[in-house]
Specification:
Elements (H helix, E strand, L loop, with lengths): L4 E5 L8 E2 L2 E8 L10 E6 L2 E17 L4 E20 L25 E4 L1 H8 L3 E5 L7 E5 L2
Parallel strand pairs: 1-4
Antiparallel strand pairs: 1-7, 2-3, 3-6, 4-5, 5-6, 8-9
Length: 148
């Protein structure tokens, strides 16, 4: 079972990096990537979830430039399941606690290359279990299940 769950936004990577059943994504950033072998990844492309992958290899190299230090990251992914019909991000907006304002452009919450997810968020998309994340004065957070 996966230790962590991720959303990778394919629009932020070069499209030819993932072809067929596997592929490698490479990028540089200041923070260290905490993904591990066996983690599950949901691919998001053009505001649609298109497939589930698992991380089969992670390579982290520290690179020191004159003005900054960065991590050069390489993640190899293996296809687990490609969705027959892509799943619209808009169907799951209320399942993601990161989205707090629904009246403006909600897609601004997905501007980065990747995000860590909770298992409940992952299950909401994969198993079509819709949740509503609610805040109130007594509880810091609760998930409320609802049937589609």
């Amino acid at each position: 079972m996966a230790k962590h769950f991720w959303i990778f936004c394919l629009d932020k990577f070069l499209p030819e990096r993932i072809q067929g059943d596997s592929g490698t994504l490479k990028w540089e950033q200041k923070r260290r990537f905490s993904g591990q072998i066996g983690d599950s990844v949901l691919m998001l492309q053009s505001s649609k979830f298109i497939a589930i992958y698992t991380i089969s290899e992670v390579s982290l190299n520290r690179v020191i430039y004159p003005q900054k230090e960065v991590w050069r990251i390489s993640v190899t992914l293996t296809l687990i399941e490609e969705f027959k019909e892509p799943k619209e991000l808009s169907d799951y907006l209320y399942s993601f606690p990161r989205i707090k304002y629904f009246d403006k452009n909600v897609y601004r919450h997905f501007l980065f290359k990747y995000y860590r997810m909770l298992q409940l968020e992952f299950d909401a998309v994969v198993k079509r279990r819709y949740f509503c994340f609610a805040f109130n004065a007594r509880d810091s957070h609760k998930f409320y299940a609802s049937r589609p």
